């Protein structure tokens, strides 16, 4: 299993676009936004906080959404289409271990991306680190597993790698919209903000943990439920070839 994870990590790094966008883009984005003086000024719209302070949780959403909804479904669907999973089934190594390795690689990449964002936010913009570290860790972990389960579900149902890319892109755009990536969440109607708080990867839980309160058990519970339901359905309906 360790060997498979190491190989999948090397393959991940051999795709510069995926590695750069998935790991570095959130950090580059906060540096670009932070270069605008108005976004570094306290604003009543954000509870007298700066825009960069309120936008950190959205950066986490961007990182997790790209890795779990763009990278994961495409890779798994391509493996099945090219017969990689079928070849694995002829060896003592179960193809499921390859899927597990994908989850581990995505989790590692997500952790690197989030930590990099935290370091840059702290050193460059003096943004406080998460005030509730344990809650933030739980929200990140459950957000990653929930979106990964959705990504595997897409890979399980999509007939081809091209179809997986199309379906994943549609879900990716919805997650980004509700996560505040396209429009700041304070500009969205309250009903959309509430929906976004409960959808994976749980921007509400991430923001609560970062700003100082424990994330809602309801938010974390929905993420855990999504992981179990989507993961179970994906596992039972997945076609290895």
TrEMBL record:
<feature type="transmembrane region" description="Helical">
    <location>
        <begin position="216"/>
        <end position="235"/>
    </location>
</feature>
<feature type="transmembrane region" description="Helical">
    <location>
        <begin position="103"/>
        <end position="127"/>
    </location>
</feature>
<keyword id="KW-0812">Transmembrane</keyword>
<feature type="domain" description="ABC-2 type transporter transmembrane">
    <location>
        <begin position="5"/>
        <end position="191"/>
    </location>
</feature>
<feature type="transmembrane region" description="Helical">
    <location>
        <begin position="133"/>
        <end position="157"/>
    </location>
</feature>
<keyword id="KW-0472">Membrane</keyword>
<protein>
    <submittedName>
        <fullName>ABC transporter permease</fullName>
    </submittedName>
</protein>
<feature type="transmembrane region" description="Helical">
    <location>
        <begin position="164"/>
        <end position="183"/>
    </location>
</feature>
<dbReference type="InterPro" id="IPR013525">
    <property type="entry name" value="ABC2_TM"/>
</dbReference>
<feature type="transmembrane region" description="Helical">
    <location>
        <begin position="12"/>
        <end position="34"/>
    </location>
</feature>
<dbReference type="InterPro" id="IPR052902">
    <property type="entry name" value="ABC-2_transporter"/>
</dbReference>
<feature type="transmembrane region" description="Helical">
    <location>
        <begin position="54"/>
        <end position="72"/>
    </location>
</feature>
<keyword id="KW-1133">Transmembrane helix</keyword>
<dbReference type="Pfam" id="PF01061">
    <property type="entry name" value="ABC2_membrane"/>
</dbReference>
């Amino acid at each position: 299993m360790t060997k498979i994870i190491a190989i999948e990590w090397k393959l991940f790094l051999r795709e510069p676009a995926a590695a750069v966008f998935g790991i570095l883009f959130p950090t580059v984005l906060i540096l670009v936004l932070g270069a605008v003086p108005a976004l570094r000024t306290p604003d009543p719209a954000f509870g007298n906080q700066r825009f960069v302070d309120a936008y950190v949780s959205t950066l986490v959403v961007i990182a997790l959404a790209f890795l779990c909804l763009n990278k994961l479904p495409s890779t798994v669907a391509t493996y099945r289409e090219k017969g990689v999973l079928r070849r694995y089934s002829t060896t003592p190594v179960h193809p499921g271990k390859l899927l597990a390795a994908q989850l581990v690689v995505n989790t590692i990449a997500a952790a690197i991306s989030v930590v990099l964002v935290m370091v840059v936010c702290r050193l460059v913009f003096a943004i406080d680190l998460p005030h509730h570290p344990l809650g933030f860790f739980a929200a990140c972990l459950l957000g990653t597993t929930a979106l990964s389960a959705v990504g595997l579900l897409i890979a399980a149902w999509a007939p081809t790698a091209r179809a997986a890319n199309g379906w994943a892109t549609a879900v990716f755009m919805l997650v980004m919209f509700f996560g505040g990536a396209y429009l700041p969440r304070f500009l969205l109607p309250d009903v959309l903000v509430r929906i976004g708080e409960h959808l994976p990867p749980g921007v509400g839980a991430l923001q609560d943990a970062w700003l100082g309160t424990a994330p809602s058990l309801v938010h974390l519970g929905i993420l855990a439920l999504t992981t179990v339901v989507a993961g179970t359905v994906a596992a039972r309906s997945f076609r290895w070839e």
